Amino acid sequence: EPEVTQTPSHQVTQMGQEVILRCVPISNHLYFYWYRQILGQKVEFLVSFYNNEISEKSEIFDDQFSVERPDGSNFTLKIRSTKLEDSAMYFCASSGGTGRSGETQYFGPGTRLLVL
Amino acid sequence: GNSVTQMEGPVTLSEEAFLTINCTYTATGYPSLFWYVQYPGEGLQLLLKATKADDKGSNKGFEATYRKETTSFHLEKGSVQVSDSAVYFCALSRIQGAQKLVFGQGTRLTINP
């Protein structure tokens, strides 16, 4: 069964460093998402991406964050200058592409980011 | 704005017990509702969903009914197993615009043999 994959599974970085989290969505999906979960808190939406552009972003997704689909398979989240409060589990998700409410989003296993 | 509230965890039950995890929502219009499950060390997996009022979603013995009168989508299972131990997330997506998911805080369920 097709699945969303994410690399790395764990990432430790120093405050101020740039990190790139990578995702390979399901191959025929058209909508891509990033969510994050700070330890002990809710899963929060960061950004959605469709047709090579951001379709929606949350207030969390400030200028330090960017997303890119550099080729036909990868979807990346870049944090330019990490802060301690960026420590979280980051989930990538994809969905088939109707964009309508009720369409299932398929999640990857997550990347745990720790900023020291 | 849209929000989801789940019952506080953790929840610990014995095998074969009846399970209810409460979920209520606040939203404009009639969103779609979901239950996702996260097993240890894994990502979020869709457990079930309902896209309109009075729909019942079901999967693996779990059920939830979309109740617009009470704005609820409670998760139930008649007889839980040890393998059901996981974190359960209730979520909604809007009916218009990008279908971002809004999650509840998650409920950790532990089933003891």
Features:
heterodimer; A: 116 residues; mainly beta; 4-stranded antiparallel β-sheet; B: 113 residues; globular
Report on this structure.
The complex is a heterodimer of chains A (116) and B (113). Helix content of chain A is 0%, strand content 49%. In chain A, 34% of the residues are buried. With 116 residues, chain A is an all-beta fold. With 113 residues, chain B is mostly beta strands. Helices cover 0% and strands 50% of the residues of chain B. In chain B, the strands form 3 sheets. In chain B, strands 2, 5, 6, 10, 11 and 12 form a 6-stranded mixed sheet that branches. In chain B, a hairpin with a 7-residue loop joins strand 10 (86-93) and strand 11 (101-103). Chain B is globular, with a radius of gyration of 14 Å. Classes of the chains: A mainly beta (116), B mainly beta (113). At the A-B interface, strand 4, strand 5, strand 9 and strand 10 of A face strand 6, strand 10 and strand 11 of B.
Question: Secondary-structure map with pairings?
Answer:
The complex is a heterodimer of chains A (116) and B (113).
Chain A lengths: L4 E3 L2 E4 L5 E6 L6 E7 L5 E8 L2 E5 L7 E4 L6 E5 L8 E8 L10 E2 L3 E5 L1
Parallel strand pairs in A: 2-11
Antiparallel strand pairs in A: 1-3, 3-8, 4-5, 4-9, 5-6, 7-8, 9-10, 9-11
Chain B lengths: L2 E4 L4 E4 L4 E3 L1 E4 L5 E7 L5 E7 L5 E4 L2 E4 L9 E3 L8 E8 L7 E3 L3 E6 L1
Parallel strand pairs in B: 2-12
Antiparallel strand pairs in B: 1-4, 3-9, 5-6, 5-10, 7-8, 8-9, 10-11, 10-12
TL;DR?
The complex is a heterodimer of chains A (116) and B (113). Chain A has 116 residues and is mainly β.
Largest sheet of chain B: 6 strands, mixed
SSE string of chain B, helices as H and strands as E: EEEEEEEEEEEE
Question: Averaging pLDDT over every residue of chain B, what do you get?
Answer: 92
- Binned, the helix content of chain A reads under 10%
Overall 3D form of chain A: globular
Count of alpha/pi helices of chain A: 0
Indicate the low-confidence ranges of chain B by residue numbers: none
